[in-house]
Amino acid sequence: MPMVYLIEGPVGAGKSRFSAQLANEKQAVHLALDQWFVALFSPDRPQTDVVNWYLARKERLLQTLWWHAQQILASGQDVILEMGLIQAEQRQAFCRQIIAAGFPLTMHVLDASQEVRWQRVQQRNRERGPTYAMQVTETVFEIASQMWQAPDEDECREFDIRFYFSDTLPASAL
């Protein structure tokens, strides 16, 4: 049975590097919401009210990516989903959707201190390396960090969740 690996955490926690490594290790297909979002919507990004603009498009893209993931899973291939589900209610609903479709799910939650995450985001903004999808301003970083809701005890009981705290790991190891 093909497996779904959901990778979550706050901005700058190391999700993209972790996802790429896991996809390589599992020979799985990695679908990252940010990459699709940039390709489809960035040319239309407004100068103001970016968060509301983003949230209005995110749900449609989540469902589109889930549809693609199901096609990949039907072929027998594992899928790594990096979806930016930073709020518990939306993340839990998405996990329930995966399980209802009959696929096993493991969620990997990465985190690091806010200071370390901001340093990583600044480095990624400068270098625009393989994990760069879009410029993350300090304002967007702060808003997204404040919105992040780590899984609580109830969520951990309901789903197979594995936690990683990456403060001490260099960015290249993530």
From TrEMBL:
It holds the Pfam family AAA_33. It comes from the Bacteria. This is Kinase.
